[in-house]
Amino acid sequence: MSLPNPFNTLQTFEGGKKFYSLPALEKAGFNVSRLPVSIRLVLEAVLRNCDGKRVLESNIKELASWKPTEARTAEIPFVVARIVLQDFTGVPLLVDLAAMRSAVAKMGKNPKIIEPLVPVDLVVDHSVQVDFAGSAEAMQKNLDLEFSRNRERYQFLKWGMQAFDTFKVVPPGIGIVHQVNLEYLAKGVLNQGDVYYPDTLVGTDSHTTMINGIGIVGWGVGGIEAEAGMLGQPVYFLTPDVVGVYLTGALKEGVTATDLALTVTQLMRKTKVVGKFVEFFGPGAAALPVVDRSTIANMAPEYGATMGFFPIDAECTNYLRATGRDEKHVATYEAYYKAQGLWGIPQKGQIDYSQVVELDLGTVVPSVAGPKRPQDRIELNKLKDNFVGSFSKPVTENGFGKKAEEFSTVKADIAGTKIGHGSVLIAAITSCTNTSNPSVMLAAGLLAKKAVEKGLKPNPVVKSSLAPGSRVVTDYLNKTGLTPYLDKLGFQTVGYGCTTCIGNSGPLAAPVEEAVVKYDLVAASVLSGNRNFEARVHQNIKANFLMSPPLVVAFALAGRADIDLSSEPIGTGNDGKNVFLKDIWPTIQEVRDQMQAALKPEVFRRLYTDFAAQNPKWNEIPSTTGNVYAFDAKSTYIQEPPFFTNFGMKPGTIAEIKGARALGIFGDSVTTDHISPAGAIKKTSPAGKYLLENGVTFEDFNSYGSRRGNDRVMTRGTFANVRIKNLMLGGKEGGNTLGPDGVETSIYDASMAYQKAGTPLIILAGQEYGTGSSRDWAAKGTNLLGVKVVVAQSFERIHRSNLVGMGVLPLQFKEGTTAQSLKLDGSETYDVVGLSPAVKPQQDLTLKITRKDGSVENVSVRCRIDTPIEIDYYQHGGILPYVLRQIVARA
Description:
Layout: E1 10-13, E2 17-20, H1 22-27, H2 37-48, H3 57-64, E3 75-78, E4 82-86, H4 87-106, E5 120-123, H5 138-163, E6 167-170, H6 177-185, E7 189-192, E8 195-198, E9 200-203, E10 217-220, H7 223-230, E11 235-238, E12 242-248, H8 257-271, E13 277-281, H9 283-287, H10 290-298, H11 300-303, E14 307-309, H12 314-322, H13 327-339, E15 355-360, E16 367-369, E17 377-379, H14 383-392, E18 411-414, E19 417-420, E20 424-429, H15 438-454, E21 463-466, H16 471-479, H17 483-488, H18 510-518, E22 524-527, E23 543-546, H19 549-558, E24 571-572, E25 578-579, H20 581-584, H21 588-595, H22 601-607, H23 616-620, E26 657-665, H24 672-675, H25 686-693, H26 711-717, E27 725-726, E28 732-733, E29 736-738, E30 744-746, H27 747-756, E31 761-764, H28 776-784, E32 787-792, H29 797-805, E33 809-813, E34 829-833, E35 844-850, E36 856-863, H30 868-875, H31 879-890
Parallel strand pairs: 2-8, 4-5, 4-9, 5-6, 9-10, 12-13, 12-15, 13-14, 20-21, 20-22, 22-23, 26-31, 31-32, 32-33
Antiparallel strand pairs: 1-2, 3-11, 7-8, 16-17, 18-19, 24-25, 26-34, 27-28, 29-30, 33-36, 34-35, 35-36
Helix pairs in contact: 2-3, 4-7, 8-10, 12-13, 15-19, 15-21, 25-26, 26-28, 28-29, 30-31
């Protein structure tokens, strides 16, 4: 079969290797060399996949003619080279594929027509919980518990490995998906036959963007979009603006890559980069090593960008070599990007960006972020005043709404140690943002060493933990002799995976938890992760601060967040003198002296080969075989979802929605953490009652994340967050609403009553609806609760597309209109007028509101089905039925 050759771009490099040449496209009359590097990498994929069906020649022309500032109406069909999954999102995705195979088998077709068309790697990293901490046995005990809790899920993953040809699993205990991706899965350049092309991907974790630090285009999508990508559909997105961030200077002594990442997050939030590509360039960017670039790239979801991208240069080559990639492959990688004209970090004036923002790295100071949002950066020396101030600030202003005089008066005695407001109860060096960066991990180890040598002791009420992002971290902490000092301060390794940052922080000691609840304490957690939304880290810890690993150790020793570490002592040393942060903070030179132990190619090669042999517990897990999964009706972990019940080849029709009732009315910044089932399952919640009714004891509830393969649990847990505030109940916290009878009940029970009566449901919300992790269940649960429409003031990118992907209509209020300005209380009936088969992307529609007294108000709203392909998805009832009909039709 001959290869397509649009604009005569199929060329050769390095002795006959084929590639689709961007310089050749420039010769065809497009000013490609002025385009941002990130746009050029997407353009290569459009060029290479131009088949006249999924990708048209007009798509190439549109993207090659990208202008820095113009209306963004064209959608890009981006066919990615591979897909990466973590297990919380990967299991339900595999469940959906299994359900598709069941649907195809029921139609009398060959189930093997459902097969991922690109390589898929699933890393099991979200299932480990910090049940045990502060002891040498913690890691083994946590791993044992993980395997016993998740045996059924792991059996199912093993079925997937044998059923699908292109589906591979990295077993538990290896590392977190982003670090495994960076250190092992990423190749930089790939080939099919003799055609070479850039490594590109999407992942089902929003922090997939960490890979942007090594010049690879990739970002987080919902599981729904990832499934479509696996099955050969392009990932569609609107042509983005690209904000160039011009970095100059260098970080000063005492400043870490984490401080830089938090500074960039705050700066980019102010720049308003939601839905845009951010591309770093200039001498400051060129001087940063890949590990620092990746720390900044990881935080892209926190600053709202689709990507935080660093172009390709010699630092990338250095990193590939240092992490054990094959020398011949590295040479091809370098030759490929030079042939494409994509080698080197651009300097000022070389690229046309939509906007340029400048940052001098020399102005960055030690920082933390919190207490409720990652973009709320606080200079370290101002944390005490900020925290004390937020204590009595109203909740609406990101405060805690307490009386100021309570701050210092409420205390509880726990085994001789006093805890109160501001006490640090969780200190976690947790996987993700920072653990892939040896500079901050070694800094944490060096600080621990100096602290121990000074005679500082761990605070007994603080639950401290270390969850390295991969086993490589343990290797270099051992080689540098720093592990014993971290151990001595309570930072024993608890496991390799995503722990505290996603709410897998495990329980606090019972007396501590009882005191927090009894006195309603505003206690704190300190963590080196990227997310600190309310009730995410731990349901009873209200103040959560993001910071560098060495600062996590320092605050664990201090035991409180209401401290100015620039002037107040952390504690008292052996000699009876005060010890200050500056006394134990490692210098840049001290960190550099240890760095040569960190990136040893042979260590990476050894630790990233033959996972099965290194993981006897994984080998013990049995697996079923066959192309179609035998769902067990009694399982409380894996159930066949209802998405393909009564599936037929005929799509539905788009019609007006009439007589809808409100299931919830919410304010601003309702995140997917508020919507999606996450963390612990309460006994009294609808999901808890379901599990008890099905014979599961409370001790075996596990987390919502581990039960994502069971829609019965997940639907009951949607909108069940203990901190969500439904304005239909006057802003009262918890997952309740008013039922059809006007009486307060759980959102799930109200939904069931409304669905029984055939009443469609609507959600109304404020700004930034759906920010947070890319959680498919936030959209799937919304759909299964019978919600047909979500009207918000603005939407987060992934969640908006996920709603459409599940057949839920997103509508946007016009500027100045809110649920509050309309004085909505949930007693109204709603119609969506103007919705028809002829609806156009981003068209204006009318929301007709009929109040209890019979009065009617018509409100103009924008349809946030953004692209033509999304109209198709919506008509088919979602992306999955659309793709399944296409596959069956082709077969």
